Amino acid sequence: MSRDSFPFTELSSLQQDVLDELRQNSARAVMFHQLISEKLGLNATDHKCLDYINRAGPVTAGQLAQLTGLTTGAVTSVIDRLEQAGYVVRDKDPHDRRRVVVKPAPEGSAQISPMFESVMQSTLQIISQYSTEDLQLILAFIKQCNEMTLTEMNKLKDKHEGES
């Protein structure tokens, strides 16, 4: 595999290896979730939005838009498809009866969980090999990467909206 480094950046061999592995991890994660999406009869965006809903609990369309970076219009379409497929239900917000929240449908969750059992077991085996200090460092790195990715997504959205 070729190592296409950015020409304006001087990297150590270790830095290049880390970047290469991050790219590989990203690509494999996308392909893994695409496969899961296909098995669930969803597209990849709907599947990842469902993951946010499952992790965040009941959310409004606006909250889901903030979590994902999608427009509220796109999120409404996602929720419509997820509801039609039986993965989520709409319900009145217990704190504000004028608002609607979206929450996981128990039947949908029961269908999804078994697909992740093996990868969760494998992940737990990997992280059990590291010390608490190692895991704290890894966690800090992942959090920084996640924040950077969100920042870069927002830059791209802002740039695209400025061109419209």
Short account of what is shown:
This is MarR family transcriptional regulator. By secondary structure, the protein is mostly helical.
CATH class of the domain at 13-108: Mainly Alpha
- Overall pLDDT level: 90
Strand content: 5-15%
Q: Biggest sheet: strands, sense, closure?
A: 2 strands, antiparallel
Shape: globular
CATH topology type of the domain at 13-108: Arc Repressor Mutant, subunit A
CATH architecture field of the domain at 13-108: Orthogonal Bundle
Please give the order of strands in the largest beta sheet.
Answer: 1-2
Description of the molecule:
By secondary structure, the protein is mainly α. It has a domain at 13-108: Orthogonal Bundle (Arc Repressor Mutant, subunit A). It is built from 6 helices and 2 strands; from the N terminus they run H-H-H-H-E-E-H-H. Strands 1-2 form a two-stranded antiparallel ribbon. Strand 1 (88-92) and strand 2 (100-104) form a beta hairpin. Helix 1 (13-40) crosses helix 2, helix 2 packs across helix 4 (72-84) and helix 3 crosses helix 4. It is globular and about 55 Å long.
Blueprint of the fold:
Blueprint: H1 13-40, H2 44-56, H3 61-68, H4 72-84, E1 88-92, E2 100-104, H5 106-127, H6 132-163
Domain HTH marR-type: 15-147
Organism: Paenibacillus faecis
GO molecular function: DNA binding; DNA-binding transcription factor activity
